[in-house]
Amino acid sequence: xxxxxxxxxxxxxxxxxxxxxxxxxxxxxxxxxxxxxxxxxxxxxxxxxxxxxxxxxxxxxxxxxxxxxxxxxxxxxxxxxxxxxxxxxxxxxxxxxxxxxxxxxxxxxxxxxxxxxxxxxxxxxxxxxxxxxxxxxxxxxxxxxxxxxxxxxxxxxxxxxxxxxxxxxxxxxxxxxxxxxxxxxxxxxxxxxxxxxxxxxxxxxxxxxxxxxxxxxxxxxxxxxxxxxxxxxxxxxxxxxxxxxxxxxxxxxxxxxxxxxxxxxxxxxxxxxxxxxxxxxxx
Length: 283
Description:
The chain is α/β, with parallel strands linked by helices. The chain is 46% helix and 13% strand. The protein is globular and about 50 Å long.
């Protein structure tokens, strides 16, 4: 039977330390550090102070934080840049987050694929091939740094219909160094790209090391709790049992920015559907 966890995003309105304590209070055993919590802190020294506070707190908690979400957006473009200085900035930023993961005892840093620059004269197929080559190179370098920190990098299937949205895009990247790299399956991104999360799970081919579990209407990245969208969760849970993955299924849903009760209610409703086996029997 699968273990489950929650991303701290569900308590985005709280400081990260309080979010962890709240998750623990409701019996959550596993978690992911949401980038939304850290993205608010723009000053590097302040961010360093936040990580130090977490270092002091984490040993006293029973919840085990198994994943951390790296920055994305600007980082994706830095890593895909054709300019060595910009790409170096991206590599250095990832190394900083690998360091944070190591200090907090986190096993996996979740990242998006790099977005390579597209030459104005290139056709679409050439651009995709070029982006694939960029990602092989970038993640090859990042995997070496990850091993230095004792952390693995999980490459997440993208939301956008570009290179990185399919498992077939990610497998060559992670198979280049399976000791340092793996796949993070995002169920919501899969269904938006027309792929059943159950099928996507099967396509991970033993490379799965992290998960983002959420639902949507098939069009928008709504990050709904399971059973609130169009994902066939009974089919998905059957697929989970067939793959060699022993990590937790991490729910990645937002709470509320204004009401702690709304956050609690969403957590309790979702956790209740898990604890009572409703998700795996939703037929």
